[in-house]
Structures are given as C-alpha cells and as structure tokens.
Design a protein that fits this description.
The chain is an alpha/beta fold. About 45% of the residues lie in helices and about 15% in strands. The protein has an eight-stranded parallel barrel, surrounded by six helices. The chain is globular and about 45 Å long. The structure holds cytidine-5'-monophosphate. Cytidine-5'-monophosphate binds next to strand 8.
Length: about 260
C-alpha cells in the first residue's frame, strides 16, 4: 500500500481538542506531530500515551536546543515514551546532536521500545534571509547563502548520527544531493494553493515538496483550521492527498503573505 506522507501537526490548546482532531484525522494521515503547545499544556507522557491508541507513528516535535547533557536527558525521557521521531535544533551543535542520538538509544533500551529517529531542525521555515540578517549572528546575505547554511547543518546532523532533518521545501533538493537517499527529509512550511501562508515563509505545495524529494510532510493549519469552503479537517486532508496524486488543485482565493489568514 502506498505510504501516506502527511504528519498532521496537532497544534491544539488542550488534549481533548487534540484527541478529537486525531480521531477525525487518523484514517486520513500517516502520522501525528505533537509540538510545544500541546506538550506543555497536557504533559508529554499523557499526550503520547493517549495518541498511541491510534496506532500511527508519533513525531515528538520538542525542538530541543540546550547544552548536550540537558538535551540528552530530555531525549532519554522522550525515547522512553515510545515515539517514532523526536528532534533537536542542529544549531545546538554536533556534540549536542551526538548526545541526543546516544540518549535516544539509551532511553529506548531502558524502556524496551524501539529508539526514536532523531531529526535535526536546520533553519526554521518561518525565517527569511532578512530575519537572519537582523539577528546578526549568521552571515546570510542572500538565499544562496541560506541554502548553504541549511546544507551544512544537515551534513553536521548526518555526521552526528541523526536520521534526518526537518527543513523547508525549498532546501530539499540540495539536502538530498548532499546527504543521500537514505537521509530522512521531513518538511513543514507546506501550503496547498488554496490556503494562505500564515507565518511560514519558505513554502511549497505538498505535491511539489514530495516531487522535490521530501519523505514526509508536516502540515498543520491547512488541515486543522480549514476555511469553510474546504470543509472539515478530514476533507482538507483528503483534498491534499488527491493533489499529491496529481489531481489538479482547485484554487480558492489568493495565497496570503506572511501573517495572512486562511
Ligand atoms: O500550521 P503549519 O502547517 O504552519 O504547522 C507547521 C508545524 O510544523 C508547526 O507545528 C510547527 O511547529 C512545525 N515546524 C515548522 N518548522 C520547522 C519545524 C517544525 O513549522 N522547522
């Protein structure tokens, strides 16, 4: 059976709301992504235990970024929960990423579960060259330099033992060329033609992101907050799956800029 590449971001303010969404979407997605809002509201062990009932892979999007010892402790705890993927920021450094990978194995072994694959976040898909320049800590004068920075971070992640990266669709092809076929590329910043971009900046459609070489897509608001003309979250997920299979997208309205709504 063909794999469903969609990990839906269950970005909801409480566990009941997230589980309601999970119940509706379980037949239509390939996995669930749980992130900072839900994990900090409901508590990671509760969230993972409740979602495990659906039998789908769980991406624990904790985006850890701290000193190696602290990140190792966090990843060890997450690994014990039995999730499929967890992640750290590549900008935390090679030692931190190596510590995370080792901790994933230690935690899983202690709990008798399969270790999660550790993914590294390269550069957040919400950041533009202008944002990075304003931060003043990285020399990113243009889009080409951003691509180079992302690929360098991906290579460091691979060397540290990470199984893949979380990266913008626009960087997939260069990461794939640098890191090879086996390296997982998980892509947020995915937007069908019929939604706004919201706070995501470096975006692409689901179809194009997969064609560029992404293995999986993380999609939140286009599915979880669909506009009335799209209908329910399940309808939005189905529409995206059809578009991935090549059915032409039905344009709805105009794609918004940053901060634009659905
Ligand atoms: O609603 P939207 O489709 O923008 O949701 C994207 C999800 O992917 C969010 O939960 C966000 O935290 C996550 N994410 C991201 N960019 C990354 C890593 C994760 O947008 N680099």
């Amino acid at each position: 059976m063909k794999k469903n590449p969609i990990f839906v971001a269950l970005d909801r303010p409480d566990l009941d709301a997230a589980l309601q969404l999970a119940q509706e979407l379980a037949p239509h997605v390939g996995g669930f992504k749980v992130g900072l809002e839900l994990l900090n509201t409901a508590g990671a062990p509760h969230v993972v235990a409740a979602l495990r009932d659906y039998g789908l892979p769980i991406f624990f999007d904790g985006k850890f970024h701290d000193i190696p010892n602290t990140v190792a402790g966090a990843v060890r705890a997450v690994a014990r929960l039995g999730v499929t993927w967890c992640n750290v920021h590549a900008a935390g450094g090679s030692a931190m990423m190596r510590a995370a990978v080792a901790a994933a194995h230690e935690g899983a072994e202690a709990a008798g579960v399969v270790p999660p694959a550790v993914l590294a976040v390269t550069v957040l898909t919400s950041l533009t060259v202008t944002d990075l320049q304003q931060l003043g800590v990285w020399q990113i004068p243009n889009d080409a330099a951003l691509q180079t920075a992302v690929v360098t971070l991906a290579e460091r992640a691979q060397a540290a033992g990470c199984a893949g990266v979380v990266a913008s669709p626009q960087e997939i092809a260069t990461i794939r060329a640098a890191c090879g076929r086996e390296f997982l590329i998980v892509t947020p910043g995915v937007r069908p033609t019929w939604t706004g971009s919201q706070d995501q900046a470096r975006i692409m459609t689901p179809h194009d992101a997969l064609a560029a070489g992404a293995d999986y897509l993380v999609i939140g608001r286009p599915i979880t907050n669909p506009s009335p003309d799209v209908g329910t979250p399940a309808a939005a997920a189905q529409r995206i799956l059809q578009e991935i299979d090549g059915t032409p997208p039905l344009p709805v309205g105009e794609r918004g800029g940053r901060g634009g709504g659905l």
